[in-house]
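Progress report, Aim 2. The chain analyzed during this reporting quarter is listed below.
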Amino acid sequence: MVRRGTRAAGGKRTARTDVAGSGRRLRIGRLLLVIALVLTGTKLILVQGFDAQQLSAAAARQRTTSDSIPAERGSFTDRSGNVLAFSSEARQLYATPRRLAEEQDKAHAEDPSEPTSDQYKREIARFITQTLGDRVREQDVLAALFADTTYTTIGPLIEPALARTITEKYPQIGQEYRATREYPAGENGANVLGGARWSQDARKIQGRLGLESSLDKLLAGTDGKKVSDTAMGSDLVIPGTERELEPAIPGSDVELTLDSDLQYMVQNKLSDYARKTGARSASAAVLDAHTGEVYALANDESFDPNAPAWGPDGLGNPAVTNPFEPGSVNKVITAAGAIEDGLVRPETVLQVPGKIKVADRTVGDAWAHGTIPLTFTGVLGKSSNVGTLMTAQRLGEDRFNDLVHKFGLGETTGIGLPGESAGFVPAREDWSGSTFANLPIGQGLSMTVLQMAGMYQAIANDGVRVPPRVIAAQTGPDGVRVPRPRPEGVRVVSPETARTVRDMMRAVVQDAPQQQGTGKAAALDGYQISGKTGTAQQIDPDCKCYSNDTYWITFTGIVPSDNPRFVVALMLDAPGGGASAAPLFHDVAAYLTQRYKIPLSPAPAPVQTLQVR
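Predicted structure tokens for the chain:
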């Protein structure tokens, strides 16, 4: 007999032993099951509790996409409120044809009263065509909706209101934001305004040239934020799912000091005159005599910022970026300094020879003559280089250099236009003996048309130069207009000196027998006009010396001189046939007096003695 609990012959376990082993395995299995349930419960608690928000956010990110809401770009207006640039919103309709078909077929299967996808697409196409009229053909809309694609655009850019009409009735049709920049005046003022374009990467209008570029942040505003649901496994937005999170803040509107009508007139007159005289280029500036505000800033070439493509011609703004040697208009510095320091009076007679030697350089007048008795007024009126250098030597190099900088030369005006040049004035320590043979007569230094206008603005404004400005004010998204502060003025000479020099320069446009000035063509019937002609030799690139047949021709004048309202500065680059800028000044001055209803001068300017007999 074999005992229980012992091994039987052959080493096999007894029945008792098998039962015990099975019990242990059962207990271990139960323990493992309990542990698994505990772990699963713990994970469930973590997922549904502690990790729920994070996981939910991750899931949301997978089925939604965030995007910016472009802010409306601010506009430009001129001083009278005429709009020069504004942004126009548009919308691009789009659809997801495959998804639309799947959803509509599913809806039809669930409810046979619902149209099939083909019927629904034809219904949508009819409505879009009826809404947009002749701007789109029904067959083109059908072709888009029946395209075997995940995304397609429909029709041209349209107004937001029309797009909303369509997408509200058919949410399966989406709309994408677009914006265009409109310039109602075309080329008028484009050198100042510049241009802006839609950037697909930034999904907004961005400034590319001129004030559109330099004021881009001010105009652009602050974009908002939105989220949209996207189709599974793609970044395509499901139409009708957009939600706004943060509204966009519009950009500021900018009011310019420009008079768009005057700008148009000056720009066209300048262009016509440049062609007539054969000038390579031409620029002009019109400033308010007292505030320095820029009423017009023009070049003979411009561009249309509305055009699909720009340039390369006419994109810049040479009136502020291209300096030139001004010639005799620079003689106002010597005149102002000599009168201010009491070295001469207008009637002081100078015995002016035909030539003068300064260091190693001999300088003559534009016309041949022996020694002649010119009044100091005559030195300006006849634009005598010799008489000017005689007076400048009495003034002295240091005093002259001080006045050059007080008149604003050698530094930018701070007007805020891109690429502004400071021109060139040689540093005082770099002057040679012959430098002072050039600077007083407007050679050996350079300036822009805007700087040249600023010099004469100081004379027109009783000796105070106010740096020019082109931005009058800005209006923020809150609707509050904030004027730009007027730049602080610089006292150049006394009021008495400025008025004296102004009166002397009336002789430039004088046309009296034997007492003619160099700019009589600038005279304007009924008004006293002060001004100064200029002719500056250009550098011959072959010999690196001054040319005898290529010149910059300039004229700067004050309208009217007895009660200054405007300063007009003109430059012609290498015109042919001995052309003068004085006739062009006359035309601009005539327009100014009519447009602004400037009263006639109480009396004609008295005839001044230029050369003593």
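The longest strand covers residues 545-559. The chain is about 35% helix and 25% strand. These observations will guide the mutagenesis work planned for the next reporting period.
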